[in-house]
User: Fold this.
Amino acid sequence: MERKRSDKKLVRAGKVSSIVQDDSRRHAGRCSTIENLRRPRLLRDPAAIKAALTERSRATGFDVVGIVRPDAAPELRSRLERFLADGAHGDMTWLESTAERRASPLALWPDVRSIVMLGMNYGPDDDPLAILKERTHAAISVYAQGDDYHDLIKSRLKELARWLTANAGGDVKVFVDTAAVMEKPLAARGGLGWQGKHTNLVSRTYGSWLFLGSIFTTLDLPADSAERDNCGNCRACLDICPTAAFPAPYRLDPRRCISYLTIEHKGPIARDLRVTMGNRIYGCDDCLAVCPWNKFASRGKEAKLAARSTLRAPRLADLARLDDTQFRKLFAKTSIKRTGRDRFVRNVLIAIGNSGDTELAVEAERLLDDASPVVRGAAVWALSRLLPREKFTALSRRPSDSDPSVREEWVAALA
Assistant:
């Protein structure tokens, strides 16, 4: 899911430092040689630039690259307008506030002539669905188990952009998925894959496991052909969704998506969706992992994206005990840190309520006195699922909570 921040950087060719630095005091007799080396030797042929850029992108750590015209997806505006009109963006208010720029790359930057779409493989080394059977342990989305990909991708994009301006000129801007860029349809137009029925990008080579980034450039480069849709009659991603978040193929309602609910949604999660979440406490990989094209996928090579051992299958009991300081320490340099401790523990409590393990009730009961209303409310729900009715009713006689949303949880649980 996206975030409300803009990860972009303009690099101007004239500001790229010279490869050969002047040192006239030591090499006065070699001035002419140095001057010759200093002269720009920019690539001029667009096809040659593209070939060199492709080679360099792989050396920088990207697995796939494609070029797309900024006007290659004119349908983006109408699709976005429909999405917003339906209110499907939920708490993701930045989608509405950036709609004009998001609807067209040219609205974001009128000078752009080519968009370099790049993908980095983060394929897992095990089955992401296996953890769902371990009900007392937490399921964390594959992408969030390693270092924050935003930081890694952004630094690699900047490195590649500097190379491009130094060797071919032009101006550039770089974007990761927190910017107002509709990456998936642009990546599909650039031949990186196609948008599957789950709306995510699917690659013939890497399945569902690609991180995306883009370089906008003023250079006019040869565009790649779009990849055709290869989903056929398959419905695996639609049918596996535990919350029925796909009202139709190729359409997602984020308000029912577990990734949205556990990461972006700020308040209490709708009661009718909590049971379906199982032990998924941060994101959901079901529709990605079940895609048949993953049989061609391979394990990601980037070490910084590899899953940390502490995040593969952490115990719910341990996560429920995290205070803000411990949360920040455990999830330092990960995407999870941005969600904040309170929403995270809310998710953990829902998983505790779904665990069926009565021994975890003590963790939920302790959190009835948490400073956060969203945590206290989730604790009430978890206890209503784990405790015998008599014991839960007795617990409800405690002093009334000061927050109306928590009081509502008690009323609903006792009804």
